[in-house]
Design brief:
Radius of gyration: 34 Å
InterPro entries: CAP_dom (IPR014044), CAP_sf (IPR035940)
Strand content: 35-45%
Helix content: 10-25%
Organism: Synoicihabitans lomoniglobus
Number of helices: 9
Keywords: Signal
Number of strands: 53
Pfam families: CAP (PF00188)
Protein name: CAP domain-containing protein
Length: 879
């Protein structure tokens, strides 16, 4: 077991931060800095300066999720050589990543996030970083005897924050944390958060042999003594007033105020209303730069800690009270609240970027759509997703010649190992040869069905690991900018026994991501303290047999640029299923979380993109019996509220002269269930329902017949099966459900109707009738399922092995759609997944996508070559 080598940083000595007020840069220093200034500093991204409001929890949450992560994982491209003294340079993209991290913190603190990178500063800072790495030391006044000493490097050292042990954006986090006994005055943080600064520069070198990585962040420019710009709050605090992700809260808190003297100030805090301890580390006063500051630690925490605030299970409120601050000779008091929260957890003020608009756009025609955006969004971005025929939903590390996974591990060991697998020969392996996050990402994007019926499963074996070595399975909803744990396990810390001695199967529900497109990765994190550094597979984390159930591999076929406002037009180029997503944007460049998928079915130059329609009637004619042959009719209500329905089971009436049928069930009863409980039932219908029959156009029942009828209100969400009880006398029945509301009224609607029964031959096939009401065409997914019912999810015997389905207008022999084998059609698979239909495991089942005008239709399920067996007919509304 090893101890983590600390990331060491050194307080900026120009000006010194000791008991007396730091000496400001001299007029000669200002002149020199001004000569290097880039006139009208380049703003390298549209939308700057960045500003944000920490008073909004959701804005703080999305700002963190959208912007912090864009600086992660950017290759430095460093082309220098520490051993020979060649400073080299890093890529423009890497310098931009550092700049973004600096501006992220400044905007969060209430400053204008528009610092630009000065090329001269960066070139000299590059030499300073090389000197720190080559001499394995930090100094703002390096002696000329240092290895690879340069005058320009020494100049940069005097004007820069300096860090060794890390480089790039990660070092900015260390400067803001300002841990360690030499940083009680948080000088690095204060220079990053100095309001007047507009130009900085960065120099970065990577690990090279025995030479450690290092950073020099040039933080002083010629504007040091310019007039103080307006800030969000009159003061500059860290953590700032308002809502702050827990990852950005460290033991040392600071409060800076221009022209203040904190030498006699006091500070107290409460957490969720209860007092906690505070310990003042430093209190500076007077004028000059950086600004006077009060620094303290809370709750008895050590300033040496590298870790942030614990992840809160609920938002945690801290009230800070600072009293007796002398401002221009006058005593003032300050009080503000910091709400520490988990940015992976949406709050009460969150909003989801849902898309609304036509579900039946026409090819070649622009159809308008609207996106629900938060008020702080600068606009939106939308994309179209296509099914990925190359996407995989299973990974087992068995590839011989290629590995599609994205490897995020150190070069000192291999992600793919053999001989220690759960099954097969290969497994994935993550270890900590050094205490940085190790990971691998699955290469695809996967759509979770709208009903949330998707799972991520894998075999896991965590070996020797400390309590701060944490294995995590994670998903991202914003293209990998932020990752949220869906599974987490820490080590047991034992030197004698591994955390897990054998593989454990993990199955994780992804219901929280219903309708979302997600990416998946596995990470092994170090959260401070000691760690097992061995890479012999007895230590670390082994993962095998990754599989995703109910998810569909998708890929973005097109992505828009930033669009101002909350609306966009979509013009489908070809008919078929279309999957759209949208998200809000910050500053025109940085995407928030993608919203849930919106599914439409494009028609060839037709359809009514403005008219509304819905399924208003279902009827099923079949032989009702008992056991596996029980007639089971299912209904699912979408939208909001409840749906009033008239339901009937008709048997005896079918014998009169209007129908003249024989072999009917003489006394059927009806039972309606919700989540396993009977919510409505009837044996013999009541004459008081005659007016209701007439209102929906239902045929009259014979007076006094033993048919069944009832009116019920079905809730949105769970399926509502209706069971026909023949009470021991089997026979032919018709089951009916009528929507009692006008199609133009209410938002609750029947979005899925289905029936399961024994399919015979001739007049004993399974026939489902349905009516589309309203003014617009309606796209439906209609399936006849038999073979799939035999798999392990259903375990039915005697199923219809090869069903076929035919759709006809009511009372007509015209066939408007038909199918025998669905053959894994990509559009069918996509729609089935997005409407929450169970996946079909057999190509022999039948399914069609069809767009129908308002009116009545029948869907007939029969067996190919007159085969018989149990089958389901399903009708899904496609939205």
């Amino acid at each position: 077991m090893s101890s983590r080598l600390p990331f060491r940083i050194l307080v900026l000595a120009l000006p010194a931060l000791l008991a007396a007020q730091p000496t400001a840069p001299t007029p000669a220093d200002i002149d020199r800095l001004g000569a290097m200034s880039e006139i009208n500093p380049k703003v390298q991204a549209d939308g700057e300066p960045w500003t944000m409001d920490t008073g909004s929890r959701e804005e703080s949450r999305q700002f963190y999720r959208a912007i912090y992560g864009v600086s992660e994982g950017v290759p430095s491209g460093w082309d220098g050589d520490t051993a020979s003294g060649t400073p080299g340079t890093t890529t423009a993209a890497f310098k931009e990543a550092v700049r973004n991290r600096v501006n992220f913190y400044r905007a969060f603190a209430g400053l204008s996030g528009n610092v630009s990178m000065n090329a001269q500063y960066s070139a000299k800072a590059q030499q300073a970083a090389l000197m720190m790495s080559a001499n394995s030391a930090l100094s703002h006044n390096p002696p000329s005897s240092w290895t690879h000493f340069t005058t320009e490097g020494a100049e940069a050292a005097g004007a820069s924050n300096l860090g060794i042990g890390t480089f790039g954006p990660e070092t900015m986090d260390g400067y803001m944390r300002d841990h360690g006994p030499g940083n009680t005055q948080v000088g690095h943080r204060r220079w990053i958060l100095y309001p007047q600064t507009r130009e900085m520069g960065t120099g970065d070198v990577e690990t090279q042999g025995s030479f450690a990585p290092a950073n020099a962040l040039w933080v002083q420019d010629s504007r040091t003594f310019d007039a103080r710009p307006t800030t969000r709050d009159n003061f500059v605090a860290w953590p700032p007033k308002g809502n702050v992700p827990y990852q950005l809260v460290w033991p040392r808190w600071s409060f800076s105020l221009n022209n203040a003297d904190f030498s006699a100030a006091t500070v107290s805090m409460t957490r969720d209303g209860s007092p906690i301890s505070t310990t003042i580390d430093a209190a500076t006063g007077g004028g000059g730069a950086p600004e006077p500051t009060l620094i303290w630690r809370y709750d008895g925490l050590s300033g040496d800690l590298l870790t942030s605030h614990d992840r809160p299970t609920a938002d945690t409120s801290y009230v800070v009270s600072i009293n007796n601050v002398s401002v221009n000779g006058s005593a003032q008091n300050f009080s503000y609240t910091v709400n520490v929260f988990d940015p992976d957890v949406a709050g009460d003020d969150s909003s989801t970027p849902t898309i609304s608009g036509s579900s039946t756009p026409s090819t070649g025609q622009a159809t308008p759509y609207a996106v629900n955006l938060p008020s702080f969004a600068s606009g939106l971005q939308w994309r179209e997703l296509g099914t990925d025929s190359n996407g995989s939903i299973g990974y087992g590390a068995e590839e011989i010649n290629s590995h599609p996974e994205i490897d995020g591990t150190s070069d000192s060991y291999s992600l793919w190992v053999t001989g220690v697998a759960a099954t097969g020969n290969g497994a994935f392996y993550l270890a900590h040869p050094e205490p940085s996050t190790q990971s691998f990402q699955l290469p695809g994007t996967y759509l979770v069905p709208p009903n949330g019926a998707g799972t991520l499963a894998f075999n896991s074996r965590l070996g020797f690991a400390t309590a701060t070595q944490v294995a995590r399975a994670e998903v991202s909803t914003n293209d990998g900018q932020q990752w949220t744990a869906v599974y987490e396990k820490a080590g047991n810390g034992s030197n004698s026994s591994p955390t897990e001695s054998s593989y454990q199967n993990q199955s994780i529900s992804l219901a929280a991501y219903a309708g979302q497109a997600v990416q998946v990765r596995f990470s092994y994190r170090h959260e401070g303290g000691s760690f097992f550094s061995q890479t012999d597979t007895s230590s670390g984390w082994l993962v095998d047999d990754i599989r995703m159930t109910g998810l569909m591999a998708v890929t973005a076929t097109s992505t828009s640029a930033h669009i101002t406002g909350s609306n966009f037009d979509y013009t489908p180029s070809a008919p078929g299923i279309k999957i759209l997503q949208a998200r809000g944007m910050f500053f025109g460049n940085y995407g928030m979380d993608w919203g849930p998928a919106f599914t439409a079915f494009a028609q060839e130059g037709g359809g009514d993109p403005t008219g509304d329609s819905r399924i208003v009637n279902l009827s099923v004619r079949a032989n009702a019996a008992s056991g596996n042959d029980t007639l089971n009719v299912g209904m699912v209500v979408g939208g909001t509220g409840t749906k009033p329905l008239l339901m009937r089971v008709v048997g005896p009436t079918l014998t009169d002269a209007r129908f003249n049928l024989t072999g009917v069930a003489p006394n059927p009863a009806l039972q309606v269930f919700t989540e396993g409980a009977i919510t409505a039932s009837n044996d013999n219908w009541d004459a008081s329902l005659i007016n209701t029959f007439n209102s929906v156009g239902a045929f009259a029942l014979v007076d006094g017949s033993a048919d069944a009828a009832l009116v019920t209100n079905l809730s949105v969400g769970p399926p509502h099966p209706a069971i026909v009880n023949t009470q021991g006398n089997n026979g032919l029945v018709i089951v009916e459900a009528y929507d009692l509301e006008d199609p133009a009224v209410g938002t609750a609607r029947l979005v899925n109707v289905s029936a399961r029964n024994q399919v015979g031959t001739g007049s004993n096939v399974l026939v489902a009738g349905f009516v589309i009401g309203g003014t617009g065409s309606k796209t439906l997914l209609i399936r006849g399922v038999g073979a799939t019912l035999a798999d392990s999810r259903f375990n039915l015997t005697g199923v219809l092995a090869d069903p076929q389905i035919i759709i006809r207008p009511l009372g007509s022999d015209e066939i408007v759609a038909s199918n025998d084998n669905w053959n894994n059609d990509a559009n069918i698979a996509a729609v089935s997944q997005t409407v929450g239909a169970f996946s079909l495991s057999s190509n022999a089942d039948a399914a069609v996508l069809v767009t129908l005008a308002p009116g009545g239709y029948t869907a007939t399920v029969s067996g190919v070559n007159d085969t018989t067996g149990i089958a389901i007919v399903e009708v899904y509304e496609v939205e």
